[in-house]
Amino acid sequence: KAGVTQTPRYLIKTRGQQVTLSCSPISGHRSVSWYQQTPGQGLQFLFEYFSETQRNKGNFPGRFSGRQFSNSRSEMNVSTLELGDSALYLCASSTGTGRIHSEAFFGQGTRLTVV
Amino acid sequence: AQSVTQLDSHVSVSEGTPVLLRCNYSSSYSPSLFWYVQHPNKGLQLLLKYTSAATLVKGINGFEAEFKKSETSFHLTKPSAHMSDAAEYFCVPFDNQGGKLIFGQGTELSVKP
Description:
Chain A has strands spanning 5-7, 10-13, 19-24, 31-38, 42-50, 53-57, 64-68, 74-78, 87-94, 105-106, 110-114.
């Protein structure tokens, strides 16, 4: 069973540009969550999509957005990049259903560097 | 609201000795709790999970954790450390209200030969 796939693995962008990151979840998983990891702030929740709808959202500015397609693949977009957006962006996949939260499986991440 | 405290930012052990990584959480109800491990420049790998079925949870690679509600703790242990265990470890409760995993600052485990 294939794991969570994130592309690209590495990105270098210039301030002011925009970027799109992609995440393909485990087959059959309908929930995709995105997290930002930086040395200073640690791991922070961006948002979660379930069946093409944003179900939960963290405390990030509107420059951070996402979407989910009918095949559960998700994309995350960051517009008007700032130096502080440099981070490892992790995608997590889970079934997203059930009374007790099922475990989340993470991808390898996309390392974004803003220069 | 849930929160998590990993009591040690860094733990160093010798190969072959026991590992103890401490975690305390705050919650008004029994949570879903996970331990994840992250090796350098890699994603997060699930070690084990607690979802109220059993208080002693066994995970991969010889790790286990015990849920103690009275102490609000979920410490991670391993009887004998291996060099490959050197990594960052995260104790992670799931916030049912916010629909998200709550990450603390993690514990870096070093293993000396």
